[in-house]
C-alpha cells in the first residue's frame, strides 16, 4: 500500500495504490486530502475525499484538487481488503507532507 501526494502550484495530485495477497477478492480505498492546522491537527479539505471499490486484488485511485491555499498538506489513504471468506482488514497510511 502506498500513498502519494504531489502539489504543483495550487493543484494537488492524490494517488493511492495497493496490491493485496492472492486471496484478496475486493479492495476499497478512500483517500482524503488533509491540511495541517497546527500541532497535531489535520482537517479534511472540502471536496477532497474520494472512494473506489474493485473486485480484484489491486487498486489505483488518482484524483486532483485545485485552488489550494498556502499551507502544509498530506494524503490519508484508507484501504479495506476483503478475502474470499469475507474477512476484512483495514490499513491506513499517509503520504509525505507537501507545503505550498
> Strand tally, please?
8
For this entry, what is the oligomeric state of its chains? single chain
How many DSSP helices?
0
Strand content: over 45%
**Structural class from helices and strands?**
mainly beta
Distance between the termini: 26 Å
What does this structure look like?
The protein is mainly β and 100 residues long. It is built from no helices and eight strands. Strands 3, 4, 6, 7 and 8 form a five-stranded antiparallel sheet that branches. It starts with a strand and ends with a strand.
Please provide a brief summary of the model.
The chain is mainly beta and 100 residues long. Helices cover 0% and strands 74% of the residues.
Helix and strand arrangement:
Elements: E1 2-8, E2 11-19, E3 24-38, E4 41-54, E5 58-65, E6 72-83, E7 88-94, E8 98-99
Antiparallel strand pairs: 1-2, 2-5, 3-4, 3-6, 6-7, 6-8
Properties at a glance:
100 residues; mainly beta; three-stranded antiparallel sheet; 74% strand
